[in-house]
Amino acid sequence: DLFTQASTHEGYGISVAEAMAMKVPVFLSDIPVFKEVTDGNALFFPLTDARAVADSLKQLKENESLLAEVAESACHYIHSTASESVYKEKLEKIYLSLVPNYNLELVN
After folding, report:
1. pTM here?
2. What phi, psi does 19 have (nearest 5°)?
3. CA 75 – CA 69 distance, rounded (Å)
4. Confidence class for position 37, pLDDT limits 50, 70, 90
């Protein structure tokens, strides 16, 4: 029903991206990397306030429409920025910038 991660620091946060791609709403500690990975398409909580986390969870349990909305926007965002096709497109741009006459059709 909800993916949650309470980290003080992370690398990229691949598990967060995977949850988003599966249209699972994410509830994350409010660290910079999670805000970057999600582009704000998540629900955040402070690591230093357990009461705020508990209150937020209670509110989320009562507001399924908010969870569905967050899950939908997160899924759309992650598929538009981190899908296989987007990754290939970005990689091709890098190759072409390094070797302008590189024939990508030979690789496909």
Report:
1. 0.80
2. -60, -45
3. 10
4. very high
